[in-house]
Structures are given as structure tokens and as C-alpha cells.
Amino acid sequence: MGLIDLLKKAFMEGYATSSITIATVLMCIGCTMAIAIYIYLIYKIVNRNSFYNKGFNISLVIIAVITAAIILTIQSNIVVSLGMVGALSIVRFRTAIKDPMDLAFLFWSISAGIICGAGFAGIAVVASLFVTVLIILFSASFKSASTLVLVVNAQSNSNEEEIMKVVREFCKYSRIRARNVSKSGMNMAVEVKTSKPSELIAKLMNLSCISDASLVENDSEIF
What we know:
With 223 residues, the protein is an alpha+beta fold.
């Protein structure tokens, strides 16, 4: 057998793993699903966004299982692996991920699928536990207070100081984010941190210059 034949045999057969049985597939997918559901629960607990995106969380489970299936398949033959790489290279994902933590969970899900698909489910379990500990430690150590946006409609811009005096009375932090002035009155958006939102609104509505006021939850944080 010549050198070319040896190289061809190495590429066509030498990289092939032991035959993949149904039991192997079920074990791999089962372990991946267990870890993916664990990721799903952790994301649901630590999610800090105002609106919990259930669709994104479900996609973490699906992505992990699909990734494990792909890795399990490409282990069988080098030709198959090259074909899948070529096919997946044309896929483009254009969904914007605004929260860095969402990106971390997405990478966690993909990594779990890759590790389980490669046959190292134990490593995936240990890594997932360590990631969870890191999330809990950093969330507890650097816990930040969520902010609110106070929207106030006043009769005139000359009443701004009177409004901010009440805001500073009830808020540890306040910052004017927007100020719109017209002939009919003024509209202000103030980012605030307060433990007494009801009292703040009540005190503002007692001012004769205020026509209406509201508090809206904000996703930004104060450290």
C-alpha cells in the first residue's frame, strides 16, 4: 500500500469513532437536555430584564441539543465533518443581543452541547456548576439597584426647581434624562432611585403645577 493510500485511509477511516448506537445517541441527548434545562432554570432565576424573554430561554435548550447532535454526527467521519462545516458556514444570525449576560448564557448553552456531543458530559456538569457559582457570587457581590424613570408633565419650565426639590427629598439618586418644553407646558424624564415610589408620586401630585406624573421601570443599573 502506497503513501497516498495510507493517507486516504487515515482521512476516510482513521478519524472514525466506534459505531454510534441508539443507546449512545439517547445518552448523549439525555445528558445534554438535563444540562440545558438546568441552564434554562438558572437563566429564569437570574434574569434581570424588565421583560422576561421566554422564547430566548427556550432557545437555549434547543441550541444545546442541536449542537450536541451536530458534534455527535461529525465524530463519525472526517468527510461528514467537513461537509457540515461548509454547510454551517453560510448561516448568518442577525438577532441583536443587547444584554451581555444573554450572550454568556448563549455561549454556555453552545459549549454544553459541544462538550456533551464530544462524550464528556461529566466536564459539562462540573463546568455548569462552576458557572452557576460564579453567577451567584458576582450577583451577590456587585448587586446593583434598579432605577425608575419618573415622567412629569408640568405647566411651565419655571416649576422645574420645585419638582426636583420633591424628587431629591424621596430619592437617593436623581438625574434628568430629558426635558421637553412647549408653550402649553413642560415634560420631564428623570432617572431616579427611590424606596418610596408611592409617596414620591403622591407628593408630586400635591403640587399645583403638576398635571400628571408616572414611574416607569428601567433596565439600567446604579452601582
